[in-house]
User: Fold these one by one.
Assistant:
Number 1:
Amino acid sequence: MPARDRLSAAFVNSAPVGKHCDGQGLWLVKRPDHKGKCAQWMLRITIHGRRREMGLGGFPQVSLAQARELAKEWRGVARAGKDPVKERERQAREAARADQTLRTVALEAFEARKAELKGDGKAGRWFSPLELHVLPKLGGVPVTELDQRDIRDTLAPLWHTKADTARKAMNRLNIVLKHGAALGLDVDLQATEKAKALLGKSRHEAKNIPAMPWAEVPTFYATLTEQTPTHLAMRLLILTGVRSNPLRHLRLDQLDGDVWTIPGEAMKGRKGATSDFRVPLSREALAVIELARPFEREGYLFANVRKGVLSDMTLSQHMKRAGQEARPHGFRSSLRDWLAEATNTPHEVAETILGHTTDSAVVRAYRRTDFLEQRRVLAERWADHVTGGAGQVVKMVGAV
């Protein structure tokens, strides 16, 4: 029989850096980066002709006696013909399935919905209202025991001060409860509605993002004279009327002549529309893109100097430093107001410029056009205005 119980508690307590064998495959591993008494227990087992290594925990959290008991247990699993590593993983999965806490069910619901969440799923923004405001208090509560009073007490601090955040958290909770019901758990599907009744009507008044009057846009645009990613991104944002996210993530392979095609999954606010979105580029917009090309990295036109792409905060901070109350997203309102007040653009064309969907799914199914040619004319007129043109009323010839 192989030697066993080679180590003593005193030696383990002051073991030098290195690997120390206790016998029968149990090792104490202490690396140079392990400060003080910190070390790791490791069990080496040969199963089905190959050697496996599995951690048994750290010392001093796991004592020498406990490590020996764990090693004995897993050696028994190996003698029964099972891979200890895989067996432990199987046990962990079973324990997770038995875990009915709100946190576990919420994470399952998030994973199940990722495919339909577009960028929000990838970035985790869908989950953040729960992660930040609900799970710290209720994460350990079994989802079957969650009731309206728990939800009310948790969201009450936000209900009248951060209404949009509270609304998102409530909606996410409702989805999690439905997911729990789909798993066969006995949850109260009315808990969120009951909680809303207990909380009452929110006193918070939503404020629109500050926007610059369209007549003042040319003056601001004229200040964007530097050939930097920030100035160029701001110029293209104004010229195209797109949201910040697809603008900052613009890739060169999305450009084809004077058309920029934004992938459908990158578009927000187009419920019921999954196709890509084409943006006509004015001559001014094309000139801005050419100026930005030297800053391209890994295919992204507006790359960050360190990693990734230009941040949304960078654009907002630029406007703040310039003494502007308006914010980058507000230029979409500037463009929409210009369309309404300085042109006779039909409603559906104006809304399409902003990437909004109009009418019912049935109407959209029969109306296949995205008004690209009409939008191309308007893009040039808007560019003329932004760069100091007259901004005269635009006659939409042949508009439907």
Note: Residues 269-273, 390-400 have pLDDT under 50 and may be disordered.
Number 2:
Amino acid sequence: MTRFLKTFTAAAVLALVGIGAQASDFPAKDKPITIVVPFAAGGPTDRVARDLAEAMRKPLGGVSILVDNAAGAGGSIGANKVAKAAPDGYTLLVHHIGMATMPTLVRNIPFKVETDFEYLGGINDVPMTIIAKPTLPANNMKELVAWVAANKGKINLGNAGVGSASHLCGLLFQEALKTDMTPVPYKGTAPAMTDLIGGQIDLMCDQTTNTTSQIEAKKVKAFAVTSPKRLSTAALKDIPTMQESGFKDFQVSIWHGLYAPKGTPADVAKKLNDALKVALKDPDFIKKQEGLGAVVVTDKRMDSADHKKFVAAEIAKWSPIIKAAGVYAD
């Protein structure tokens, strides 16, 4: 028995040493890192992830970083893929505010947001825009509110699917106007935007990362931004805030964060967090994000523990709103 225990202990020590060696060698130059995006390609979260992948390559020694789109079920399919992945630092998740809404929004969620991930840090804050089809007769928020009141029961409000940023913002917009609209969910932001431009739906509330180019090209009408102050981007600087438009409590920011599977070695997680911090200060990354109306995180949310506290507060904020709306993503 004693001989067995000595052998077992020696094997355990060797295993731990092996794990430590693997962690210290992270990342291997011949093994790519994959960032899973739980939404369709071409959408706003996909754009953020691809920009981040490029910005993190250099501080991680030039390793290849791939993006894998795994959409569906309010973002939980992609998140579950990462939660169940090997905790070695080679499979990561870029997710938005859905990390805070999934616990309430998704029935029978197969993982726990609070405990099944290593929180690596926040990435950005993305304001939303209230936009409409180009033929909508209103030209400012006052006229839009009057148009909505005159067309109750006839208005289609598009979104990128249950649990998407556009869906959540749409819920708040209806609540603010005290008017029910017919929700039209799509399988992603791109087809929703196509139908808005074509006039098949009337309104949408979506991230600046997806709407800025359409607003600039005058393919849609823009009525307000959901940030506390006007944005400096050329295409958005003349668009008033919701507060300026008479909705003092209407403020929505769709943030993004970076995560790894629970159990990822501490030194690997630190290397990833260090690379994230370098990326968030990269001038090219900042310029790309600002061009989309997004604000790169510069506060304590860059740290893992503080981002986790932030997400916990967001879960507490959104849970009653979703429950009151009675919506779920199966």
Note: The chain is about 45% helix and 20% strand.
Number 3:
Amino acid sequence: MAERFHPDLKRARRMSRQAVSPATLRPYRALLSLGGALTGRGVEKADGPTGQPIWVYRPTVDGPHPALLWIHGGGLVFGHPLTERRFATDVRDELGALVACPTYRFAPEHPYPAALDDAYAALTWLAEQPGVDPDRIAVGGDSAGGGLAAALAIRARDRGGPKIAFQLLHEPMLDEATRHAPPPAPDTLRLWSHGINRWAWDGYLSGVEGDVPATASPARLTDASGLPPAWIGVGTRDLFHGEATAYAARLRDAGIATELHEVDGAYHGFVQTEGSAPVARDYVARMKAALERAWHVT
């Protein structure tokens, strides 16, 4: 019988099945804001065009630099760039890239398209930064951030916006229909459950009338032509495993170069919670290598 979780992930069995709930959302947001204020004192910050702060990790040498817009997770209802500081710093230092981590407005107070508008504004800001190579701009993110990055790629294509060379989607939240489906193996879900997923999507889409657009739920995409190449990573014990693999297949069917990396027995958020585990280190190394290939960094 196969192991329920990857053997490297020692904390999996003790991990909460749901990290946040509607009742704990406000205090959790407050704790993240406090943590950001304390740990982000030395980080450059800029005001995005919609007034949302952007955390900026800028190389010390002159450009032109590749650039990454890296969007934090939190199910569209919470989160903070502080959780992405280590990855952003590593990408800057190891790949010589300018990394921008935007904040964005949260549902349910600010439903679609508020978060996407903030992320798109941050993308346009990034594309205009001095020293950024316009042919080497990537977008990506974790969980809800990965879903927003996929939506950004669609919006930029449809609007003729900043050119995106690559999308890096880490355990992305892509399909609102997952909220209506029976949860797969709910006893192995960690940190993000079917119930909170449904509540988060309901809040984010509360202003949508009629069909859900692909820029809200990228899995609704009918025409993937013209989108940038992608790397998609997800664990097999993740609630988003099915939607991530299906999205990878859709991109491939449209002729979009797409690499899918599935981690057997990994749960949602395993990189954040068990970053020192060999399987997590290997996963992050693969993410960086994908960026390096996309940017042709030598």
Note: Residues 278-295 form the longest helix (18 residues).
